[in-house]
Write a structure and sequence with these properties.
8 helices, 12 strands, about 40% helix, globular, 4-stranded antiparallel beta sheet, alpha/beta
């Protein structure tokens, strides 16, 4: 008899009412839920028993959500993180993504969308297609999927997990324009309509790192369509 694995989510918010509401709703949606009231508690919880994903409020006293994400990534934790943010904290939200978060939701949000996004983040990333070499070489780029490393003109470029997955999908389809929706499907696992500019944000991060030494632009925007890697 097979065992059904229940995904475990850690909800981090300094508002007790929000924690209680999300815990109840996510349990009813099939998740095993634990909670933390601040960033320090969240880090201790992850260290003691890493969850499958985190729902993390951006604005918290003492240690905010951005600091939590930064600490998690510095410690080597790749757990998917979905940030919760108010519309007035755009800079904090972007900073959280840059620190290594995977996605965000703007408050107020529909519970069904949070559940859908968490399930998408929990899906395994796409495996390399049959016949793909261990190191994918596209122009000056060399991407090692197993080691999750990237070299540009022989120099290592440090990318987050999500940045590497995005660049890998673009490289596999080099010279082909990929729509935002297709990138959301292949990189984030979102096979449903979602209102987010997370693709644009992560493309911006990629460009900043790939062009840091004056390298000509590799990831181009096709206005009204999407993005393309042109070596």
């Amino acid at each position: 008899m097979s065992t059904v694995l229940v995904p475990r989510v850690l909800v981090v918010d300094d508002d007790a009412d929000v924690r209680t509401s999300l815990e109840r709703a996510l349990r009813l949606s099939g998740f095993a839920v634990t909670t933390a009231g601040d960033g320090a508690q969240a880090l201790r919880a992850v260290a003691a028993d890493p969850p499958d994903c985190l729902v993390l409020d951006v604005t918290m006293p003492r240690m905010d959500g951005v600091a939590v994400v930064t600490a998690l990534r510095a410690l080597g934790h790749d757990v998917p993180v979905c940030l919760l943010s108010a519309r007035s904290t755009v800079d904090d939200r972007v900073a959280g993504l840059e620190a290594g978060a995977d996605d965000y939701l703007v408050k107020p949000f529909a519970l069904a969308e949070l559940v859908a996004r968490l399930r998408a983040l929990l899906r395994r990333p796409a495996t390399p297609p049959p016949g793909e070499p261990p190191v994918l070489v596209v122009g000056p780029l060399a991407l090692d999927h197993a080691r999750r490393s990237v070299r540009l003109h022989g120099t290592v470029v440090e990318l987050t997990k999500r940045e590497h997955e995005l660049l890998t999908v673009l490289a596999r389809h080099a010279t082909v324009v990929l729509t935002r929706q297709r990138l959301l499907e292949e990189v984030w696992g979102y096979d449903f309509a979602v209102d987010t500019n997370v693709v644009d944000v992560f493309v911006g991060y990629l460009r900043r790192k790939l062009e840091a030494d004056g390298t000509p632009r590799l990831v181009h925007t096709v206005r009204g369509v999407g993005f393309v890697l042109r070596p």
